[in-house]
Design goal:
- The protein has 384 residues and is of the alpha+beta class.
- Helix content is 34%, strand content 30%.
- The strands form 3 sheets. Strands 1, 2, 8, 9, 10, 11, 17 and 18 form an 8-stranded mixed β-sheet that branches. Strands 6-5-13-14-15-12-16-19 form an 8-stranded mixed β-sheet. The protein has a 3-stranded antiparallel β-sheet with strand order 3-7-4.
- Helix 1 runs parallel beside helix 7 and helix 7 runs antiparallel to helix 8.
């Protein structure tokens, strides 16, 4: 049965909503989490968790479970076929987590859900939030079932097309869509690919990301002219042959899952309107370059959970305002970084040899490699 009241209503039970719920329930607050889907995501989708995110997830008690479930990739290599352009070493980071964690999104969600249930929380499914109204004392969330839940605060963690964000008047003023098409495929292969390194191939035919996953498969992401809705084995094989390693043959044996997407670049002008706050893709969305999206959202969740707990406990909302300002500022930086990485990776064919030559020259400077490694790891800004 749907509760009538709560301290906080969280709309959306993806990684961001679940992480926020864990932080609040662990601090003794009453939380209602609703999600429009009958079950959680069952595809890999976001699959990178960065060192700074792992540091912050320690605060809600899930880092150990996540790191046990994923691959610890200590290296990131930018290549042109078999030629190394920029080798990066995460093992040199100033962090307890000197690697990027490769773990499918559904595993991240499962770890967070199990932690939430261990603390006595739960997710109410399938319920879609259709409206929110506010007063000085709190807010009311109306669900498609007709139920109305009253709370002191409401958090929109329901993705790029958030109903709650728009109902609260926190929608994006504009939307930029890069005129680029991408294909994504999780594949199984026979030999030829490394299981401990994430690789970005910047070849003349185009870019290709190859990243290992814990089940032995590999994530392929490529910018293409006309991405198929569901890439098959032959399509994935062609990408690897044209853009990937050249000396060691790689044979694709299965496409586990595939999709296509275009890039939207958005940051909400405000993250807060009185009793309603934004987190995750409801607040920001951008290129997947560098695997920043889910990481930024998870860091939103940890920071917002602490700010909400302070407001609920003391009545002082200053930390909510700090969250809204600081998290938005970080989102602007991350969107800009992802945009730059995307533009570098997708320059026109005539410019690709020159780009690669410049990258190879820059990689000779330790400061350049160190800066890029820290940016990818999320360690360039003051830890919250």
């Amino acid at each position: 049965m749907m509760p009538k009241r709560a301290d906080v209503v969280i709309v959306g039970a993806g990684p961001v909503g679940l992480a926020l719920a864990v932080g609040l329930v662990d601090r003794g607050h009453e939380v209602v989490v609703v999600d429009r889907l009958a079950a959680g995501a069952n595809t890999s989708r976001a699959c990178v968790v960065h060192p700074r995110t792992l540091e912050m997830l320690e605060r809600i008690g899930v880092t150990e479970q996540l790191t046990t479930a994923g691959i610890h990739a200590e290296q990131f290599a930018i290549r042109d076929g078999d030629r190394a352009l920029v080798p990066l070493q995460f093992r040199e980071l100033a962090s307890a987590y000197r690697y990027v964690l490769m773990v499918p999104q559904q595993v991240t969600e499962q770890v967070l859900l199990e932690r939430l249930e261990e603390l006595g929380g739960s997710v109410h499914r399938p319920y879609a939030a259709v409206d929110v109204t506010q007063s000085a004392e709190g807010a009311e969330v109306t669900l498609d079932s007709g139920d109305v839940v009253t709370a002191r605060y409401v958090v929109a963690a329901d993705g790029m097309n958030s109903k709650i964000r728009d109902a609260a008047g926190l929608g994006f003023d504009h939307s930029d869509t890069l005129a680029l098409n991408f294909t994504l495929a999780d594949v199984r292969v026979q030999d030829g690919l490394q299981h401990d390194v994430v690789q970005l191939y910047l070849s003349r035919p185009g870019m290709l990301v190859v990243a290992p996953l814990p089940d032995g498969s590999f994530r392929l992401v490529a910018e293409v002219d006309d991405a198929p809705e569901r890439p098959d084995v032959a399509y994935a094989q062609g990408l690897l042959e044209l853009r990937g390693p050249q000396s060691a043959p790689v044979r694709v044996t299965e496409v586990v899952w595939g999709s296509r997407f275009r890039i939207h670049e958005r940051v909400a002008d405000r993250y807060r309107d009185r009793r309603v706050l934004l987190a995750g893709d409801a607040a920001h969305t951008h290129s997947p370059a560098g695997g920043q999206g889910m990481n930024l959202g998870l860091r939103d969740a940890v920071t917002l959970g602490e700010a909400l707990s302070a407001a609920l406990t003391t009545g002082n909302e200053s930390q909510l305002d700090q969250y809204a300002a600081a998290s938005r500022a970080e989102a602007v930086r991350v969107v800009a970084l992802a945009h730059r990485l995307t533009r570098v990776a997708t320059v026109p064919p005539f410019a690709r040899p020159s780009r690669n030559a410049v990258l190879r020259l820059l990689s000779r400077f330790p400061a350049f490699r160190r800066s890029l490694t820290n940016q990818l790891a999320g360690l360039t800004h003051t830890r919250q």
